């Protein structure tokens, strides 16, 4: 059986940024990587919504794990909180990636499309900052 | 004056607990415009709307939450804030209340509250990857906790919380959105410090009213 590719979740304060970044990922990797995106607060304004982050992780779930790309403060804090709320067997397989959200998502997805491990996908995107 | 904290008999009843939750929520909701103005000066301007949304949900849940013992009540407040606030303050205040619930017993006294508050502050530090002196809510929570631990009455804890929020004005922000402004963050009160001081003041008022 083919091993699943790492999934990608994009979390931005802006629904448009999240959607646009996801479009750029799809253009690069097609459907070879599980992908989900979310943006906006619970009322639809700029911000992030923990419940929808959980849904996005579920939608992009892969047995190989999920990398979450975030833009600013609340996106990171809400994503970290969401990960802690996952079932114990999944919690350890979802990581927040410390990389620019658009570039990081494209690089992470490209790395993931080659079947790389969760750790390698995360590290490759984070090297954008190095 | 020796207004004791958590000595009010009213808190033993669901009605009393519901009134306490409603009082705190009302203070935060009434301050929404002020919090927004503070956040527009050095942040993204969403703190008032976010806190209002979160505490409106808490107020709505108050009658149900008040039926529960303290640990479950506080966990419920924290979870509601986490799910509804929509900004970093959701997980931060959510963590504060959830951890309070985790460490406060079913019949808390002053010592238990002091201990639980201290642990909850440590959890907020970890959640926000922050330390005191960075112009954040910690700069109010920690002095308020110190006053509580030193035996201060409710009025003194409240005064210290407000004074601590004032002391964030000259601070340089090194954590949170205000840190992007660098030195331009100096001269403005931290919005999270202000909301923390309001919550502590509302609690102090409610707990000393009986």
Structure characterization notes:
The complex is a heterodimer of chains A (130) and B (210). Helices cover 48% and strands 15% of the residues of chain A. Chain A is of the alpha/beta class and 130 residues long. Chain A has one domain: 3-Layer(aba) Sandwich (Rossmann fold). In chain A, helix 1 (15-29) runs parallel beside helix 5 (101-113) and helix 5 packs antiparallel against helix 6. The mean pLDDT of chain A is 95. By secondary structure, chain B is mainly alpha-helical. Chain B has one domain: DhaL domain (Serine Threonine Protein Phosphatase 5, Tetratricopeptide repeat). In chain B, 67% of the residues lie in helices and 0% in strands. Chain B is built from nine helices and no strands. Chain B has helices at residues 14-30, 32-42, 47-65, 70-84, 89-103, 110-128, 138-149, 154-166, 191-209. The interface between A and B is medium-sized, with 19 and 21 residues.
Give a summary of the structure in a few sentences.
The complex is a heterodimer of chains A (130) and B (210). Chain A contains six helices and four strands, in the order E-H-E-H-E-H-H-E-H-H.
């Amino acid at each position: 059986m083919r091993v699943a590719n790492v999934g990608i979740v994009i979390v931005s304060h802006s629904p448009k940024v999240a959607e646009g970044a996801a479009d750029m990922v799809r253009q690069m990797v097609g459907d070879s990587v599980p992908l989900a995106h979310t943006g906006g607060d619970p009322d639809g304004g700029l911000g992030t919504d923990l419940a929808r982050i959980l849904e996005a992780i579920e939608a992009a779930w892969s047995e190989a794990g999920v990398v979450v790309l975030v833009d600013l403060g609340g996106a990171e804090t809400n994503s970290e909180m969401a990960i802690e709320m996952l079932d114990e067997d999944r919690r350890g397989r979802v990581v927040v990636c410390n990389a620019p959200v658009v570039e990081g998502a494209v690089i992470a997805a490209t790395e993931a499309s080659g079947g790389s491990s969760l750790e390698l996908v995360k590290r490759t995107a984070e090297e954008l900052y190095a | 004056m020796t207004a004791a904290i958590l000595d009010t008999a009213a808190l033993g009843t669901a009605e009393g607990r519901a009134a306490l939750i409603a009082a705190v929520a009302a203070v935060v909701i009434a301050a929404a415009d002020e919090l927004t103005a503070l956040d527009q000066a050095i942040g993204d301007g969403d703190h008032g709307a976010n806190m209002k949304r979160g505490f409106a949900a808490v107020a709505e849940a108050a009658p149900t939450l008040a039926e529960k013992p303290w640990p479950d009540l506080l966990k419920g407040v924290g979870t509601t804030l986490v799910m509804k606030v929509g900004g970093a303050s959701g997980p931060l205040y959510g963590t504060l209340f959830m951890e309070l619930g985790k460490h406060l017993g079913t019949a808390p006294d002053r010592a238990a509250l002091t201990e639980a508050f201290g642990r909850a502050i440590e959890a907020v530090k970890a959640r926000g990857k922050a330390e005191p002196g960075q112009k954040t809510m910690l700069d109010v929570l920690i002095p308020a906790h110190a006053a509580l631990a030193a035996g201060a009455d409710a009025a003194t804890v409240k005064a210290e919380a407000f004074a601590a929020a004032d002391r964030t004005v000259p601070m340089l922000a090194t954590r949170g959105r205000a840190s992007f402004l660098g030195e331009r963050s100096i001269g403005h009160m931290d919005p999270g410090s202000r909301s923390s001081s309001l919550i502590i003041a509302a609690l102090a008022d409610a707990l000393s009213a009986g």
